[in-house]
């Protein structure tokens, strides 16, 4: 799929500059609060599964961040006691994440076809990564999220809110072809329900000082 190739190439090109831009930043306090709530919910046992076949202890079940980029959110959730690993489309981003957080596991992969077993995860985080998925592919991606989560597992999404996509042909002095889809919280909630999820939290906040649009976070659960 061409959008995957374009997204991979774009983030490979800007990886170093992107990391410098976000250095020392994580998320606004409200967003961090929802990350903390997600960590507490997962640690409490939503979607208990057996240990992973690759030898990493699952505890109450592993969690994956898809589209993890340089690993900031993965590392933050790990610090909150979550057994988590990261997957990203960009090999350069994965390399930076591995170098920055050598104690954590990061691998290459696409959210459109996760190389993970059915029902093996207690949680899945997509923190500003669904924004690169065109509308016609979103139902398939959410179905993939549903597939890899264990019954009772939790899904956390964050994204920019809006109606029109924004395209970039240049970023940080590099030629790219990146599309950022601004999404509707109600629309994504509807897609989640159609994919088999129960939506428990739908948070909308106004844009911050460095943000161009309102932002949304959704928390959903695969029924047990």
Q: How would you explain this protein's 3D organization?
A:
Strand 6 and strand 7 (174-180) form a beta hairpin. The protein has a single domain, classed as Rossmann fold (3-Layer(aba) Sandwich). The model is unreliable at 46-59 (pLDDT under 50). It is globular and about 50 Å long. Strands 3-2-1-4-5-9-8 form a seven-stranded mixed β-sheet, sandwiched between helices. Strands 6-7 form a two-stranded antiparallel sheet. It contains six helices and nine strands. The protein has helices spanning 2-22, 29-43, 72-79, 91-100, 138-148, 185-194, and strands at 63-66, 84-88, 106-108, 121-127, 149-160, 166-171, 174-180, 198-205, 215-221. The chain has 224 residues and is an alpha/beta fold. It is 33% helix and 26% strand.
Summarize the structure in short:
This is Methyltransferase. With 224 residues, the chain is α/β, with parallel strands linked by helices.
